[in-house]
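Researcher: I'm preparing a figure for a lab meeting and need a structural model of a single chain. I don't have an experimental structure, so a prediction will have to do for now. The sequence is pasted below. Please return the structure as tokens so I can convert it later.
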Amino acid sequence: MSTDMKRPEFADVKAAHARLKGRVVRTPLLRCAALDASVGRPVFVKAECLQTTGSFKYRGASNRIMQLAEDKKAAGVVAYSSGNHAQGVAAAAAEAGVPALIVMPKDVPAVKSEGVKARGAQIVYYDRVSENREEIAAAIAKERGAVLVPPYEDPMVIAGQGTAGMECAEQFQEFGVKPEALIVNAGGGGLTAGIALAWEALYPGAKLYTAEPDGFDDHKRSFAAGKKQRNDRLDGSVCDALLTPEPGDLTFGINQSRITAGLSASDEEVFAAMRFAFLYLKITLEPGGAMALAITLKGRVPGQGPLCVLATGGNVDPALFARVITA
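Model: Understood. Here is the structure written out token by token.
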């Protein structure tokens, strides 16, 4: 992806926030006494698992597709995704009356592929280890004359994801609380970038952290090294939503100077967070959506002041979820 692409600004996030008002769900900022007691600080959980299609991805997909030129709609859109962006694009495209094709990994949880099919989108599967999803999607888009809607390397997608950060800021103001820090799950870094742009303007003193699986912590290592680092492999963690080769060029360009550090947790710690969320917050989280909460529960986020935790998705395989919460 070219680094020459125009970076979105706070004004773009504000415009997306206005554009999406009434279309996206204003997800709650949850409080839980048991969580505060466990962590030893006030914690506020932004429940994006309750967003349309079960994740924050609907925000970016909607913002991008709502801005399609009229002469581009007939050919439709093409996207590549491990599941949540796929469902967001499928839903936004269906609402706009635009055909959609999604390139998805063969090992995607059935709950995610079924959600895409239910919204009328076509699926082309690929092997995440041996094939390049970006190249496959780009070739299909070129052949069809369709618009490519990437999961994170797109200014309009990033601006749309940033509306979750705008909502957080509004909700903290309603609580009368000034947050000290925020932690967000990171795959390609689009949600992180959108929130970073919003919070740089609204809460410039807040510390921002990314959350990733142990062994797949490319953001954590990239921030420490001052340049992008790749993951050695693309399978081996239950957090499928967060398994990307490396940070995006566009997103890393935004995040590098705005993120304090990257943090990580194990799959077992994620399972514990999923159980905690179900028992005490009364929400369902997929493994990748629970990573920031897992890191929070282990006390790894520095500081003692109010902390915002992004719970980014709830599209979990039912059988896996049953095993996790009954373990």
